[in-house]
Structures are given as structure tokens and as C-alpha cells.
């Protein structure tokens, strides 16, 4: 089997660390691994497959021998560095939001739209985390019944804001329990024992940028430029795994039983829907694993057309970011696009 | 001003305690206060307006001199005891779900449908907490634009499950932070740093009873027997105040500006909707106060008709239960129905 020189850029962040763990556990065919990060992290070492690997500076020349570069960096860094990495011969799989809506850049969830990878010109974008988690169940439902409209409310874990987000939730929780003062830094407000209906910046239409990602990226990934999408995103005091309450309207009827059958057969999903046994998707059960759990599947009793309602959860650091990026890399190899 | 003999039944529970605090702070015209509870609590004392009041046994004869009885007891207890209290001359304002859908019993949110109090026959039902919180903003929006459909996802605090629910969240949170084992008792699963998309029992249509309360009670309170309602209820690790993400479809157009104007003028509401200053409703800001906060008001961009989306929060122990019950009592007095 052919092996590749793989770079992880932003190797010491939450998503970068998860990418390394996934590359290792999935035995990704790596000839050489390069860990790239900002100047202050250069020289630090990370264990990978039993060997210590030193962090190098993330700069254009670092990509000269790289085949596949997994980017887990900010929008600004990606904007400058991704084209340089491509010039130096790497295929960039980028987790930031910089390239996602670029018509030249494929935006890919491997279970949903792998075929668009054929059009890649060096940069491939990894979608927004809550969008990925919604797309995996929505694709098979769309194939069965034709998706017309999505109304989603999210319950997003703090790890969406990186390692610092997790620390803030834990520290604040302890302080609140001990009646000590708290001082929010990562989030705009207290997150412990609270909710914040605000993720990313507000756009002119009063939706947040995060909410509009579900709208714009959802349309692009599903190839449905007319799809109607309404999303409300809230940060919740959960460490890991995003949850979503989703109601859809479809062209053709779909019963809950048909939906369960379709979802059971689709890739990347696990149907957890036995309410009589108190079994439904929950964040604690979906953390640190690869599948999107779907449950609470039922008819939308408010619909005058064809409506379905469900609840899904997925580990947004894994499937919502690091795993999806590695799966894109695996798909590129499998489709012989490298 | 006329004064009344008031009983609080279930006086030592979370809602009962809140009722006492609200009666005191609102200077309810009380001639005599009776605290009623189960046998094991008889003889305990509670401070009210500076005086210690002893708890008496909650049984039919206890209501003989009572004018207004606020019930904060279980469905089963209410089913037996409320008719006995009425026989003994009391008007019962009941917080359980037993009487809510009885066509003979008014189901009342004083800001929304006080007029139905005129039909009372002794028992008046206090609606479900998340339903009350939705009704307060939905009523003025309905009056302006005509409500056709509601799609709601709730984020419900643990205090909806009483004092034991709060204790379980706090104890579990500390144990999770300290890597100690946890053993759920009040909730079906871990609630600390987790979400549970399951409140009350599952009905045959796969909705929970809590979700169907929004459907059934919403229709009854708004006097709209055809209203289409889809609700998903989730328990979140928040101590106090329920939040709701609500999308509505209306007969006539309503812009976000019109909605803000209408909501600003309506009773029981505070519009908190300045995203540019990171101001929107949050549970920590709405706990221990009386108003429902509404914000994130925006056009439903997925609607082909007239659609609006918003986010609201309210203290479900106060407005969602105890305050609403006391307000019903105040309204009965004001309307001279006692």
C-alpha cells in the first residue's frame, strides 16, 4: 500500500490533537508525519505511534515534501497558508471556514458527497461541525423523500471552542458550585449552568454566522441550492458532542418506520430510538466515537405536508471536525485523486 | 381591602416554597395562611412575613375555612384532594397536570386568557411550565398576525424536577469534575454536562407527554383548537429557567421590528434583543424574576409563508409555576370572582 507524507497544521490544538489520535487509530498510511504549529510551540514533542515527533514551524516551506496537509488553524492562517501549501505540492484538507463557500473548493462529508472531490484543485474544505452532524442523517432522508426545508435548533458543546472552552466550563462549574466569582473569557457570558444563544458573529439578517453555515453549507453539501434552512444555535454546558433537534419537510411522504429503515442502512449513523427503554441519543454516549446517533424519530404533527422530526448527536471534535478531515483524506486515496 | 384565608398545599416542595416567597413579596391580601403537606412534614415550621407558621396535614378537613388553595402537589394527590377542597368551600389553583385538559376547568395564563376564569367551578389549572413561557410571547404575536403553527425546541432546567433535581445536577457536576462515579436517581440518565431529550413519559405517537402539553395546553390557552404544534423537549444542565427556540408560521405577515414593538407593549415580557451588544435572553439572567425575556427575533428564512423565529427564557419555578398560580389568585380577586 502506498504511504504518504502527512502534515497536521495546528497540531497542538483540540482538533489537531484529535486528528493525530484518529490518524493513529485508523492506521492511516503515513510515510512521514510532520507536526506544524505556531512559533511558541516549535520544539515541543508529541507521541505518535510510540515515537516522539517534534513540532516544526508552520510556514510555506514546511509543505515542500507533504502529500496531504490537514489544517486545524484559524481562518486567517488558513487564508494565507493553504494556497502556499498547495503551491508546494500538498493537498490541503482545511477545517477553517475560509474556503467552504468558495465555488472552486469542494465542501465534503464523505458519506454524503464524495463525488465532488474529483473537482478539487488542491484545497478541500471540511464543513462546519453542526452542519456535518446534520448532513449525515439528512442525506439518506433526502434520497428517500426529497428534502424541501430544515428547521434546526442546536445544543452545542463547549469543545466547539477548543481546549480553552472545555477549561472554562470546568473551572466555571467548580466556581459556581463553590459560590466563587467567575470571569468569562472564552465565551461572551457565563457558560456553567447557563445557555448562550450565540455562536460566531451576528450577520445582518440577525442570524449568527454559525446558523448561516447550516443554511449555506447545507445547500452546497447536499447540492440543493433552493433548500430552505432555518437554524438556531445555542452553546450548552456540555463538554463534548453537539445535539440537534431537527424538523424537516419533504417532497414525498416518509413515515418514522421508513426513516428508521433508511437511516439504519446509511453509512456513519446509528439509530438509537427505543424510547420505551429510555434509549435516545445523548452527548455523553456519543463522545469519543465516530457515529452520528439518531433517535426520537417521529411524524411532525404540526406539518400540513410531509414532515418528520428527529434528534441527533455527534462528537463534533471527531465527526464534526478531525475524523471528517481524515475520512476526506482516506476517500481521496481510495478514489485515486492523489 | 378584603383579606383571604390562603392555603399552600405541598408547602415544602420547590414550587410550594416559591409560592410562599411570592405571596410574601407581592403582599397578597392574606387574613390567615395555612401550610399543608404530607404527614412526615407536619409540625415543621416555615417563616412567613416574619412569623413561624406550622405545617398541618394536607387532608379534606384542612380546607374548611380556606378561600384560596394553591396546590403544588402530584397529579395523584390533586386528583383526590382538589374536589374535596372545593367541596369545603375553597377555590383551588392547581399546579399539577391532572385538571388541565378537563373541559370544565379553566387553564389560565393571566396575561393571555384571564376571561376564561369567569367559567370556573372551583378548580383552576395552572399550565405546564414550558407552555406558560411560550404562551406569554405567543399571545401578542397571535393577536397581531394570527398564529397557524408553532415549532418549538426547549432547553429545560433541572429545577423543573423540583429541589431533588437541583441537588442531583450539583452533586453529579462535582463528581464528574472530580472523576468520581455518579448514580442517576431523579433523571433517567446523567444530567451533569449532558442533555436528556426526554421529559415526562412517552406517548403512543413517540412524543413525550411534556411535548404534547405544549400541543394540547397551547391550543386550549390560546383558544385555537386547530393550532399546529410540534415540540421537542430536552433537559439541560441548567439550574433554573427554561429556554425555548421557537419558530412560528402566521396568517398575516409580521416583520421582526413589528414583533419587537408588539412584544414590548405586551404584559409579562421583556424584549432583550441587542445582538450587537451580546444581549439576548439567557437562563442566568431570567432566574428569580418574573418576566419572560424574548430575543433573537428574526425572519424565518426557511418559510415560504409568514414566518418568525425567536428565543425566550423564563424562570419556570416562578412564572412557569408559582408566580402564575399567585397571579391567577390575584386576577380572581380583581375580577371579583371570589
From TrEMBL, chains A, B:
<dbReference type="GO" id="GO:0071266">
    <property type="term" value="P:'de novo' L-methionine biosynthetic process"/>
</dbReference>
<keyword id="KW-0457">Lysine biosynthesis</keyword>
<feature type="binding site">
    <location>
        <position position="100"/>
    </location>
    <ligand>
        <name>phosphate</name>
    </ligand>
</feature>
<dbReference type="InterPro" id="IPR012280">
    <property type="entry name" value="Semialdhyde_DH_dimer_dom"/>
</dbReference>
<comment type="function">
    <text>Catalyzes the NADPH-dependent formation of L-aspartate-semialdehyde (L-ASA) by the reductive dephosphorylation of L-aspartyl-4-phosphate.</text>
</comment>
<comment type="subunit">
    <text>Homodimer.</text>
</comment>
<keyword id="KW-0028">Amino-acid biosynthesis</keyword>
<dbReference type="GO" id="GO:0009089">
    <property type="term" value="P:lysine biosynthetic process via diaminopimelate"/>
</dbReference>
<keyword id="KW-0220">Diaminopimelate biosynthesis</keyword>
<dbReference type="Pfam" id="PF02774">
    <property type="entry name" value="Semialdhyde_dhC"/>
</dbReference>
<feature type="active site" description="Proton acceptor">
    <location>
        <position position="242"/>
    </location>
</feature>
<dbReference type="GO" id="GO:0004073">
    <property type="term" value="F:aspartate-semialdehyde dehydrogenase activity"/>
</dbReference>
<dbReference type="InterPro" id="IPR000534">
    <property type="entry name" value="Semialdehyde_DH_NAD-bd"/>
</dbReference>
<dbReference type="GO" id="GO:0009097">
    <property type="term" value="P:isoleucine biosynthetic process"/>
</dbReference>
<feature type="domain" description="Semialdehyde dehydrogenase NAD-binding">
    <location>
        <begin position="5"/>
        <end position="120"/>
    </location>
</feature>
<keyword id="KW-0791">Threonine biosynthesis</keyword>
<feature type="binding site">
    <location>
        <position position="235"/>
    </location>
    <ligand>
        <name>substrate</name>
    </ligand>
</feature>
<feature type="active site" description="Acyl-thioester intermediate">
    <location>
        <position position="129"/>
    </location>
</feature>
<keyword id="KW-0521">NADP</keyword>
<feature type="binding site">
    <location>
        <position position="156"/>
    </location>
    <ligand>
        <name>substrate</name>
    </ligand>
</feature>
<comment type="pathway">
    <text>Amino-acid biosynthesis; L-threonine biosynthesis; L-threonine from L-aspartate: step 2/5.</text>
</comment>
<dbReference type="InterPro" id="IPR036291">
    <property type="entry name" value="NAD(P)-bd_dom_sf"/>
</dbReference>
<dbReference type="Pfam" id="PF01118">
    <property type="entry name" value="Semialdhyde_dh"/>
</dbReference>
<dbReference type="GO" id="GO:0050661">
    <property type="term" value="F:NADP binding"/>
</dbReference>
<comment type="similarity">
    <text>Belongs to the aspartate-semialdehyde dehydrogenase family.</text>
</comment>
<dbReference type="GO" id="GO:0019877">
    <property type="term" value="P:diaminopimelate biosynthetic process"/>
</dbReference>
<protein>
    <recommendedName>
        <fullName>Aspartate-semialdehyde dehydrogenase</fullName>
        <ecNumber>1.2.1.11</ecNumber>
    </recommendedName>
</protein>
<dbReference type="InterPro" id="IPR000319">
    <property type="entry name" value="Asp-semialdehyde_DH_CS"/>
</dbReference>
<keyword id="KW-0486">Methionine biosynthesis</keyword>
<feature type="binding site">
    <location>
        <begin position="159"/>
        <end position="160"/>
    </location>
    <ligand>
        <name>NADP(+)</name>
    </ligand>
</feature>
<keyword id="KW-0560">Oxidoreductase</keyword>
<dbReference type="GO" id="GO:0046983">
    <property type="term" value="F:protein dimerization activity"/>
</dbReference>
<dbReference type="GO" id="GO:0009088">
    <property type="term" value="P:threonine biosynthetic process"/>
</dbReference>
<dbReference type="GO" id="GO:0051287">
    <property type="term" value="F:NAD binding"/>
</dbReference>
<dbReference type="InterPro" id="IPR012080">
    <property type="entry name" value="Asp_semialdehyde_DH"/>
</dbReference>
<feature type="binding site">
    <location>
        <position position="316"/>
    </location>
    <ligand>
        <name>NADP(+)</name>
    </ligand>
</feature>
<dbReference type="InterPro" id="IPR005986">
    <property type="entry name" value="Asp_semialdehyde_DH_beta"/>
</dbReference>
<comment type="pathway">
    <text>Amino-acid biosynthesis; L-methionine biosynthesis via de novo pathway; L-homoserine from L-aspartate: step 2/3.</text>
</comment>
Amino acid at each position: 500500500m502506498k504511504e504518504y507524507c502527512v502534515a497536521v497544521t495546528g497540531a497542538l490544538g483540540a482538533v489537531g490533537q484529535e486528528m493525530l489520535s484518529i490518524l493513529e487509530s485508523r492506521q492511516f498510511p503515513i510515510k512521514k508525519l510532520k507536526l506544524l504549529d505556531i512559533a511558541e510551540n516549535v520544539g515541543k514533542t508529541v507521541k505518535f505511534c510510540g515515537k516522539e515527533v517534534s513540532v516544526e514551524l508552520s510556514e510555506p516551506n514546511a509543505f515542500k515534501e507533504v502529500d496531504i496537509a490537514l489544517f486545524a488553524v484559524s481562518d486567517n492562517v488558513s487564508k494565507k497558508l493553504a494556497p502556499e501549501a498547495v503551491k508546494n505540492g500538498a493537498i490541503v484538507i482545511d477545517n477553517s471556514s475560509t474556503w467552504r463557500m468558495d465555488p472552486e473548493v469542494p465542501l465534503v462529508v464523505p458519506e454524503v458527497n464524495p463525488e465532488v472531490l474529483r473537482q478539487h484543485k488542491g484545497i478541500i474544505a471540511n464543513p462546519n461541525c453542526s452542519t456535518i452532524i446534520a448532513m449525515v442523517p439528512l442525506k439518506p432522508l433526502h434520497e428517500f423523500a426529497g428534502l424541501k426545508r430544515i428547521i434546526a435548533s442546536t445544543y452545542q458543546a463547549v469543545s466547539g471552542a477548543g481546549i480553552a472552552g472545555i477549561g472554562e466550563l470546568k473551572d466555571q462549574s467548580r466556581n459556581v458550585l463553590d459560590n466563587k466569582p467567575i470571569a468569562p473569557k472564552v465565551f461572551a457570558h457565563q457558560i456553567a449552568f447557563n445557555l448562550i444563544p450565540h455562536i460566531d458573529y451576528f450577520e445582518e439578517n440577525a442570524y449568527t454566522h454559525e446558523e448561516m453555515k447550516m443554511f449555506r453549507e447545507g445547500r452546497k453539501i447536499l447540492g440543493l441550492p433552493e433548500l430552505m434552512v432555518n437554524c438556531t444555535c445555542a452553546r450548552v454546558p456540555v463538554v463534548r458532542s453537539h445535539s440537534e433537534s431537527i424538523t424537516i419537510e419533504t417532497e414525498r411522504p416518509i413515515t418514522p418506520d421508513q426513516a428508521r429503515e433508511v437511516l439504519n442502512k446509511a453509512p456513519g449513523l446509528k439509530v438509537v430510538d427505543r424510547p420505551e427503554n429510555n434509549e435516545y441519543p445523548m452527548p455523553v454516549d456519543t463522545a469519543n466515537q465516530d457515529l452520528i446517533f439518531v433517535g426520537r424519530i417521529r411524524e411532525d404533527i404540526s406539518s400540513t405536508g410531509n414532515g418528520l422530526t428527529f434528534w441527533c448527536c455527534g462528537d463534533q471534535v471527531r465527526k464534526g471536525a478531525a475524523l471528517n478531515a481524515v475520512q476526506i483524506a482516506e476517500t481521496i486515496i481510495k478514489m485515486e485523486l492523489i
